[in-house]
Amino acid sequence: MELKWTDSLEIAIALDDAHPDVDPLTVRFVDLAEWVQALEEFNDDPAHCGERILEAIQMAWIEERE
After folding, report:
1. Under a CB-based contact definition with an 8 Å cutoff, are residues 36 and 42 in contact?
2. Residue ranges per structural domain of the chain
3. What is the residue-averaged pLDDT of the chain?
4. Which own/partner contact pairs does 12-16 have at CB distance under 8 Å and 24+ positions apart?
5. pLDDT, tens digit (0-9, with 9 covering 90-100), for 6-20
6. Is residue 3 a contact partner of residue 41, using CB atoms and an 8 Å limit?
7. Is-above-0.90 flag for pTM?
8. Which of 28, 18, 12 is nearest to 65 (CA)?
9. Architecture of 8-65 per CATH?
């Protein structure tokens, strides 16, 4: 399955698996964007990413942790 920027929940789950010791509240958006693009399943244009997308991913990651 390929992940796109709009797949915030699936990306959050993958990030939680890849970075289990990281508090998602402490991740800077620059790092978050890099980590998303580093996911093996991720396949989307980096130019399609913006602050709202990163906020949605971060919020989904926080909710996944709860």
Report:
1. yes
2. 8-65
3. 96
4. 12/57, 12/60, 12/61, 12/63, 12/64, 13/64, 14/39, 14/41, 14/42, 15/39, 15/57, 15/61, 16/61, 16/64, 16/65
5. 999 999 999 999 999
6. yes
7. yes
8. 12
9. Orthogonal Bundle (1.10)
